[in-house]
Amino acid sequence: MTLPALFIAHGAPDLPLSTTPARAFTQDLGKRFPGVRAILVISAHWEARLPTIGTAAAPPTIHDFGGFDDRLYSMAYPARTSAAVVAEVADALKAAGIAFAEDARRGYDHGVWIPLMLAFPRADVPVVQLSLRHGASAAENVALGKALAPLRDKGVLIVGSGAIVHNLRAIAREGTPAPDWAKAVDDYIVTAVEAGDEASLLRVLDTQGGRIAHPTPEHLMPLFVALGAGGGSGHAIHRSFTWGSISMTSFAFGEEKKAA
Description:
Elements: E1 5-9, H1 21-29, E2 38-43, E3 47-48, E4 52-54, H2 83-95, E5 101-103, H3 110-119, E6 127-129, E7 132-133, H4 138-148, E8 156-162, H5 180-194, H6 198-202, H7 208-213, H8 221-230, E9 234-238, E10 241-242, E11 246-247, E12 250-253
Parallel strand pairs: 1-8, 2-6, 2-8, 3-7, 4-5
Antiparallel strand pairs: 1-12, 9-12, 10-11
């Protein structure tokens, strides 16, 4: 069975403690994919000079945030990596002519462990993390995703982890309605994804709304990796906002559309 590629909004680090619709969605997500062999995550929170594969056998949990509930800092996600899947990722990148590096010390940042501890709480599925290349364009990240696409036929669930609207200067108290500009960008991206309009997606950071939604681009870039890995055909599997303006919209690429 060919697995889809996913783009998942990981939200704020307090997602596991929240009672939001996004938490309920993420908690149910793993049930869609029983028997997954491994998970490959491309998180907004790891950028490097080259796409870099985390190769540590038991990556530590990185608490790469401050100012949140003390309970979050004692949480850990004890998943292990897989040498076989690391080799398959490396082979896929080599086959596409993409230069890469490896990091034997890197742990799982919160873009990895926050959503996975909800979706796959037993931590019994191997998890491999691949960094973004710092400064890579949207089109280059689509190409990275295309290089990884063959892994979907090998039982590997490819997950881009970020947010399609992510301006921390515009956050508000949880439960505050999303501002109009945030909803407009969210709608623009959902419409483009579901129409297969890659050209409009590649231009989103050139629009006024896109620049407001992304003062820095790293949280949007995992979307392009998922789009490339999934073959460009996608649909929203969840839509909501948290902290006012942070989009929790998530997508599946390369699967038959189901009810969100």
